[in-house]
Specification:
Keywords: NAD, Oxidoreductase, Porphyrin biosynthesis. The protein has eleven helices and twelve strands. The chain is of the alpha/beta class.
Length: about 300
Amino acid sequence: MQYFPLFVDTQGLRVLLVGAGEVATRKLDLLARTDAVIHVIAPDIAADIDTYYQQGRIRLSRRAVTQDDIADIDLVYLATANEQLNIDFADIANERGIWVNVVDNPGYCRFITPSIVDRGRLVVAISTAGVAPVFARTIRSRLETMLPASLAPLFDFVASKREDVQQTLANGKDRRLFWERFFYSNQDRFDNLTEQRYVDAFQEMTRQGEILLLTEHTPANLLPIAAMPLLQKLDVIFSDDPLNSETNELLRRDANRTQIPKLSDIAHQYEQGNRMLIVAAPDKIAQLIAYFPMAKHLRPGAL
């Protein structure tokens, strides 16, 4: 993974955008949605950028950029038509330890801007490491149709309730169960029944444990699609040997990982409502199937 995805808190973030043409305007359209403090420098200004200035959203300097401008800045976007100027100022920024993005020139970028699906508090970022932005936009167009606009007010609602849930449910597992119940009932809607679904989610806080079984060395790409949401809800993963990276990538990252315990310990965790994945050799899986008839065996193409 060449580019590691990060979501940066933009409150007070100081951003310098050099250039004010069409390419710079596209960058500013995204940056202006954030809480960043934005300074745009360019001799000639596009009408859309001047509109942001008239609205008081940006600071604007109608002149050529100088080295002194790259001081006390957190991020720099270089989006001029002068490639050599972009490269020269990228070198200056890198020397000063300032993260820089040279538009359409990944070789001089300390960071890149992904293709973004914006639903308020829910943001999905897609990147192809700068090599296929057209394909990233294709994926974005698919996600735009999948994620309804109602998600923006829904997550504002969820944010307004988080403190209440934390005070009501002290245990982290209980809070996770509560939100699972709420989203299962509410789905991606935000309507006049959302508040009632929130209240109802507190009513039944018990949950049934679950045991998933996976024979070791099963190719991750052959697992059934229906298994994916189950793998993301696990509390603990039992395996005597390290999992391969492909399988591990499908699992909930903060699930506890440990060696396979005694059968009685597995039964106890099941009774406590824990959701488990046990990865083992075929003979061990056969033993577990016999002992736990309620277990789901994850096999290629079937549950």
